[in-house]
Write a structure and sequence with these properties.
Elements (H helix, E strand, L loop, with lengths): L14 H23 L1 H9 L7 H17 L1 H4 L6 H28 L19 H20 L7
Helix pairs in contact: 1-3, 1-6, 2-3, 3-5, 5-6
Length: 156
């Protein structure tokens, strides 16, 4: 197994796992487009989270979150990839969901009453709190099911 040569993805465990991966990819595309559409307002939105500290931390978090959302797509869409890129894409999908879960839980624990948590960018407001936590728990469920269903080492 060469790390640099592209290979086909293994078959998904089931049709449902494939469909869940497509749904997760669709959700990530909507999130990334929403966040990039108003990126200059997305950074101050993330700066309101007490976990990220100052504007520099928010800029770094915003960049990493959007990059993780975009890099997760090749794995979820089962593209022809090298094994290294497949694993990087798999981890990006987990990081994207995990980052939003961490931000949601931190806002809920800190009691921050943010009118917009930033999950869908600045145009579509999902308030930070229980609504955003429910969204991100669902996002983590989609990520977990996708990873289980499309696991690269799974042989059918």
């Amino acid at each position: 197994m060469k790390l640099a040569s592209a290979q086909n993805a293994v078959q998904p465990r089931s049709v449902a796992a494939r469909n869940v991966a497509w749904a997760y990819a669709g959700v990530l595309v909507v999130m990334a487009v929403g966040q990039l559409f108003g990126f200059e307002k997305f950074i101050p939105l993330l700066a309101e989270y007490s976990l990220l500290g100052n504007e520099g931390g928010a800029l770094l978090a915003a960049c990493l979150i959007v990059i993780a959302e975009v890099f997760a797509l090749p794995f979820l869409l089962r593209m022809h990839l090298s094994p290294f890129m497949r694993w990087l894409s798999l981890l990006s999908g987990i990081v994207a969901a995990g980052a939003w879960l961490l931000l949601s839980v931190s806002a809920l624990v800190a009691g921050d009453a943010l009118a917009n948590g930033g999950v869908l960018g600045v145009k579509v407001a999902i308030p930070a709190g229980v609504a955003q936590l429910a969204w991100t728990v669902g996002l983590c469920g989609l990520a977990g099911w996708s990873v289980w269903g499309l696991w690269p080492l799974h042989k059918k």
